[in-house]
Design a protein that fits this description.
Radius of gyration: 21 Å
Largest sheet: 8 strands, mixed
Helix content: 25-40%
Structural class: alpha/beta
Strand order of the largest sheet: 4-1-5-7-8-9-12-13
CATH class of the largest domain: Alpha Beta
CATH superfamily of the largest domain: L-asparaginase, N-terminal domain
Oligomer: single chain
CATH topology of the largest domain: Rossmann fold
Distance between the termini: 40 Å
Number of domains: 2
CATH architecture of the largest domain: 3-Layer(aba) Sandwich
Number of strands: 18
């Protein structure tokens, strides 16, 4: 399965989630079980030509309970084991996988090896599980090297249902189907069929001579405010008045539009003047924010709101956490939010 079985090694980090659960025969409830049991249901792991090791979160974390401290733990593991392994596979619950993948893309600066997050919609012990294929293909991608002996995909990715996607471009779209994730604004990095076909032109190019820089500082005083028809002034005012608030991800309509309400522009402008960073992202699945395109967007731009381009909400939130955690001034955060730090936005 691996390109060079003589010297290829992959570390599997099991955090929890559906892929690592089994149905209790008495209650029918899903319960976590350990990696040794996982090997029982995926005997192919033992048959692989790669050297595979594993680390398990104890106790495993449900995806809904994922917090920045767990991201720090993942970064610490990868940083400590970085020189020993060719790639890393993180088994993770699906609900917050896009947040974790986005956060890791910023926290692992100058990453030059694959970090592949994957999981499943059905427990791996179930007959029709999607977990086995997701796991085995993720391992193959994590171990893959190009003709020069360098990692084929040296970035943080999500692999799900035959598609490899840049982690900070993904969103969980479906709670029911196996094809749960999409990368609407960026091409997939690879497709897995009989062969894995890599789209090398869209995979990040890295300088393998640069050393990994692991970051652990995150600021979490952030709110997400989604606009909707009929939103009350007191709802917006209360959100912007949260004690200690440092940044807001504002989910607007279409290409960055908002209601033409004087009170809304006034509240947003006053918040910006107080040093609160407000990033405009679209509620649409695909497309980009163009604040100069319509009058309302232009007025928000004049009020100090910054353009989030084609960022996902997950990426905007974790990027703000990363920047705020490192103590940047609001003006510096605004400037850096308009730059692509890890391939997370497309700037025309």
């Amino acid at each position: 399965m691996c390109d060079d079985p003589r010297n290829t090694s992959v570390l599997i980090i099991y955090t929890g989630g559906t892929i690592g659960m089994i149905e209790n025969a008495e209650t029918g409830a899903l319960e976590n079980f350990n990696f040794e049991q996982l090997q029982k249901y995926v005997p192919e792991l033992k048959q692989s030509n790669c050297d595979i090791d594993s680390i398990q979160f104890d106790p495993p974390i449900d995806s809904s309970d994922m917090e920045p401290e767990a991201w720090r733990k993942l970064v610490r593991i990868i940083s400590d084991k970085y020189d020993k392994y060719d790639g890393f596979v993180i088994l993770h619950g699906t609900d917050t996988m896009a947040f974790t993948a986005s956060a890791l893309s910023f926290m692992l600066e100058d990453l030059a090896k694959p970090v592949i997050l994957t999981g499943s919609q059905l427990p791996i012990g179930v007959l029709r599980t999607d977990g086995k294929e997701n796991l085995m293909t993720s391992i193959e991608i994590a171990a893959s090297k190009n003709k020069d002996g360098m990692p084929t995909v040296p970035e943080v990715c999500i692999f799900f249902e035959n598609h490899l996607m840049r982690g900070n471009r993904t969103t969980k779209l479906n709670a029911e189907n196996f094809n749960a994730f999409r990368s609407f604004n960026y091409p997939v990095l690879a497709k897995a069929g009989i062969h894995i076909k890599y789209n090398n032109s869209v995979i990040r190019q890295v300088d393998s001579n640069r050393s990994l820089k692991a970051h652990y500082l995150l600021g979490t005083n952030i709110a997400v405010l989604k606009l909707f028809p009929g939103i009350h002034e007191n709802v917006v005012a209360a959100t912007l008045a949260i004690d200690g608030l440092q940044a807001v991800v504002l989910e607007t309509y279409g290409s960055g539009n908002a209601p033409r309400r004087k009170w809304l522009l006034r509240l947003l402008h006053e918040a910006c003047k107080r040093g609160i960073v407000i990033v405009n992202v679209t509620q649409c699945c695909a497309g980009t924010v163009e604040m100069e395109r319509y009058g309302t967007g232009f007025h928000m731009l004049e009020s100090g709101i910054i353009c989030g381009y084609d960022s996902t909400t997950e990426s905007a939130v974790t990027k703000l956490m990363f920047l705020l955690g490192h103590g940047y001034e609001p003006s510096e955060v605004c400037q850096l939010m308009g730059q692509s730090l890890a391939g997370e936005i497309t700037i025309s």
